[in-house]
Every structure is written in structure tokens, then in C-alpha cells.
Write a structure and sequence with these properties.
Layout (H helix, E strand, L loop, with lengths): L6 H36 L6 H17 L5 H22 L4 H23 L11 H23 L4
Helix pairs in contact: 1-2, 1-3, 1-5, 3-4, 4-5
Length: 157
């Protein structure tokens, strides 16, 4: 028998989802910007603090809707698949929610980046996501978002 879903549960899940996407996107965007700027400095560029801050702000805005692929929209799609999948796994297995949603967020980010790269002839569109450190930071951003979802979506008595 199916359990009745209340408006409160839908609202709570929606708010949790949106918060998780925002946390993930903002963190991933900042990590991407910092990775690019750090690489440029290692190559010998001298970048002033103001330029670092401008670049972070510019990427927060620009990666959300610009170019061929919107990173913000990709995160939204990835999380709309990952979080319900984690919820289903939670129903079937006795895995702690916090761990499950954290792993789902990290996996979503790795999958998003793999699919984007696969669809663009093996080109990494977001330079700060290159290499193991870049991928790891993006997965960490997804893990943060997944943890936020787990915390906010927990049913309170």
C-alpha cells in the first residue's frame, strides 16, 4: 500500500532540494574559480586579490546560465536524479541517510562532469574541474550539497 504524501513533505523535499542545489553550485563554482586562478599563479601569473574576487563573482553568475552548458542547470538535473535514487536506496537498504545523500551528491557531480566531457568530444568545458584535484573538489561540493539535503529533508516528529 502506498503511503500518503502530504503537502508539508513535498514542501520540505522541495526546499531541501533547492538548498542542496544552491550549496553545491556555489561551492563548485568557487572551487572551479580558485582552481583556475591557482593554476595561473603557479604558471607565473600575478593576480591581484581584487581580480580573484571579481573572477569568483563573475563565475558564480556566468556558470549558472552561460555558454553551451549551464553548470547550474547541470547540477539541478544531476540532483533531481541523485536524491530520489538515494531515497529509494534508503528504503531498500539500511544505510545511514547522511552517508547515502552525501555519496549521492558526490556521485552526481562526477557523473555530470563525465557526461559533459563525453558529449563534447572529450573536452573538459570547465577548466577548474580538470585532473584528480579538480574532480575531487567538485565531488566535495556535491557531497556538501548531499549533506545539506540529508539534514534539511529529515522528517521531524
Amino acid at each position: 500500500m502506498l503511503k500518503k504524501i502530504t503537502f508539508h513533505q513535498v514542501r520540505q523535499a522541495s526546499i531541501s532540494y533547492l538548498a542542496a542545489v544552491v550549496v553545491t553550485y556555489v561551492t563548485a563554482s568557487i572551487f572551479q574559480s580558485l582552481s583556475v586562478l591557482a593554476t595561473l599563479e603557479m604558471a607565473g601569473a600575478d593576480i591581484a586579490l581584487g581580480k580573484w574576487l571579481y573572477t569568483i563573482w563573475h563565475d558564480l553568475w556566468g556558470l549558472s546560465s552561460g555558454g553551451y552548458v549551464s553548470y547550474g542547470q547541470a547540477v539541478m538535473v544531476g540532483f533531481v536524479i541523485a536524491m530520489p535514487t538515494a531515497a529509494l536506496i534508503n528504503k531498500l537498504l539500511s544505510v545511514p541517510r547522511g552517508i547515502l545523500y552525501t555519496l549521492a551528491g558526490a556521485t552526481a557531480m562526477a557523473t555530470i562532469l563525465y557526461i559533459i566531457k563525453l558529449n563534447f568530444y572529450d573536452v573538459t568545458l570547465f577548466p577548474g574541474t580538470r585532473g584528480w584535484s579538480g574532480l575531487g573538489l567538485q565531488m566535495l561540493a556535491g557531497a556538501f550539497g548531499g549533506a545539506v539535503f540529508a539534514f534539511l529533508s529529515k522528517q521531524r516528529s
